[in-house]
Amino acid sequence: MSISNLLAVVAALIHVYIFVLESFRWEHPKTLKTFRMSADQARISNDLAFNQGFYNLFLALAIVVGLLTNQKILLQYGMASILAAAVVLIVRKPKMLRGAMIQGLPAALYFIVQAL
After folding, report:
1. CA distance 64 to 74
2. Domain residue limits at 96
3. Residue 84: CA atoms inside 13 Å, Cβ hemisphere, count?
4. Closest to 55 in 3D by CA, of 9, 18, 101
5. CA gap 82, 87 in Å, rounded
6. Which of 42, 86, 102, 108 is found 20 to 30 A from 53 (Cα to Cα)?
7. CA 33, CA 1: separation in Å to the nearest integer?
């Protein structure tokens, strides 16, 4: 497996994990801490988080399908979407830099390795 494909797998796994947090563990105390929110904020945004979790799952699936079928454009779309979302998070909420880095670093490294 190439380094870029390994980075894609890491990105997909991270987004499956985010899917679980957002869609099934949104109001759990550990998730509250991870996303820096109160129990009230989580309760109010539960439906939105559930939906957003599925977006993250679909990004992960695009990456996995792209890898398994050798559909480079699908793989690159998934990775570019992840990278763009990380940039949006940094711009919109700079205090979430750590989360944005966890989310976006594998995708950024993927593109760097692809360029070499």
Report:
1. 9
2. 3-115
3. 8
4. 18
5. 9
6. 108
7. 35
Tokens linked to 89: 């998070």
Q: Residue 62 is which amino acid?
A: A
Q: 100-107: long-range contacts (C-beta < 8 A, 24 or more apart)?
A: 102/14, 103/14, 103/15, 103/18, 106/7, 106/8, 106/10, 106/11, 106/14, 106/82, 107/7, 107/11, 107/79, 107/80, 107/82, 107/83
For 6, counting Cβ atoms within 10 Å of its Cβ (0-12 exposed, 13-18 middle, 19+ buried), the class is: middle
User: pLDDT tens per residue, the chain (116 residues)?
Assistant: 799 999 999 999 999 999 999 999 999 999 999 888 999 999 999 999 999 999 999 999 999 999 999 999 999 999 999 999 999 999 999 988 998 999 999 999 999 999 98
